[in-house]
Specification:
By secondary structure, the chain is an alpha+beta fold. The chain folds into two domains: 2-155 and 182-240, no CATH class; 251-337, no CATH class. 19% of the residues lie in helices and 33% in strands. The protein is built from seven helices and 24 strands. The protein has helices spanning 37-52, 56-63, 101-106, 112-117, 141-146, 204-220, 334-337; strands spanning 2-7, 13-14, 17-20, 25-31, 67-69, 73-77, 83-88, 109-111, 130-133, 137-140, 156-163, 174-181, 191-200, 235-240, 251-253, 267-269, 272-276, 279-281, 284-285, 288-292, 297-298, 304-308, 318-322, 325-327. 34% of the residues are buried. This is CRISPR system Cms protein Csm4.
């Protein structure tokens, strides 16, 4: 298994928009902080098509699990390759009874060490144990000391004014767009960006092509507004990932999942998100599909599936809903046993 790091330049901005089902439009002032697995899949397919033409071979590799990937989450690190990586907060943590419930709900990401060591919310606001960054990223104090920083700004959400250009309307041309910004640090040796887990078992010739696609993500970028400079990266770095436990009693979802009917019983606690709905021409939109969000708790491994969201069911547009699961420390089950 590999870790793919998308290293950002200081000041770079990213826009990962959302479709709001009730309005059936993409609201530019609504932004997801990280790129989800389905967006990464789409980006890889698009790059493959630009470089090699037909992407059927690549899509088949995803469908047959020769390639499997997680969503991308935040990381910070230093020149010594020490890394602090964040994962989605287990959604069940919001059920914890605490006098700091608002702060608890605001946390969106927790570090790998918190998950691996099974550190429970009772200790999350203990200043001798944990540090809260930006109000929504939580890590152990020792993790910050490993990368030799006391305080760091991982990302900010910024809003910028925009003007509609391709319209005949004379009024309501102004609108706002929310982006994710990676602020510069005083220490130039600090690296920040996104990372995702990748499992691939491709034959050598296909692997070479796929690795080229990954490296091209730096220049092709991710998300919206790329023509204005959003979404680009300084570098794509691919390293071997630490081995994860093969079996566990419970798992944390690191991807958006569209489960088969026979897999639905595996979900214990989960959020639901709606994807799709983008307009592809003047009279057609992609189908919307409900997916289980990152941070879900599962009682066993499942596969998930890739679904057709083409308006005409012709397979032209597909939504990646394969499961990428992270084993949980057995201590985590106390979260729901106390509910």
């Amino acid at each position: 298994m590999k870790i793919v790091e998308l290293i950002t330049l200081p000041g770079n901005q990213y826009h990962f928009g959302e479709i709001l089902p009730q309005a059936e439009e993409q609201h530019m002032n609504v932004v997801t902080p990280h790129p989800s697995s389905d967006l990464l899949f789409s980006a890889m397919v698009n790059i493959w098509q630009k470089v090699y033409g037909d992407a059927t071979q690549l899509i088949n590799s995803f469908e047959t699990d020769l390639i499997r990937l997680s969503s991308a989450f935040f990381f910070i690190g230093n020149k010594e390759q020490k890394r602090l990586r964040f994962l989605p907060k287990p959604v069940v943590a919001n059920l914890k009874s605490t006098d700091q419930h608002k702060k608890l709900k605001r946390i969106a990401y927790v570090s790998e060490a918190i998950i691996n060591q099974g550190v429970l919310p009772d200790q999350w606001f203990n200043p001798d144990c944990c540090t809260l960054l930006e109000g929504n990223l939580l890590c152990l104090n020792e993790e910050l000391s490993h990368i030799k920083v006391d305080k760091i700004s991982v990302y900010k959400e910024v809003t910028i004014p925009k003007v509609k250009v391709h319209t005949l309307e004379k009024e309501n041309r102004l609108y706002s767009q929310s982006n994710i910004l990676f602020p510069p640090e005083e220490d130039s040796q600090i690296e920040k960006g996104y990372y995702f887990y990748l499992e691939e078992n491709l034959p050598p010739d296909e692997q070479e092509k796929f690795m080229a696609v990954l490296n091209l993500m730096a220049d092709e970028g991710l998300g919206g507004d790329r023509s204005s400079g959003c979404g680009l990266f300084k570098e794509v770095r691919i390293t071997e990932a630490p081995a994860l436990t093969e079996t566990s009693d419970y798992y944390l979802s690191l991807s958006l999942i569209n489960p088969a009917k026979e897999e639905q019983h595996a979900f214990l606690y989960y959020p639901i998100v709606t994807r799709g709905g983008r307009r592809i021409n003047s009279h057609q939109r992609l189908k919307m599909v409900n997916m289980v969000g990152e941070g879900a708790i599962l009682s066993q491994k499942i596969a998930g599936r890739i679904v057709d969201i083409s308006p005409n069911n012709d397979g032209r547009y597909k939504r990646y809903g394969k499961a990428f699961l992270y084993p949980l420390n057995t201590n985590i089950e106390q979260l729901w046993k106390e509910v």
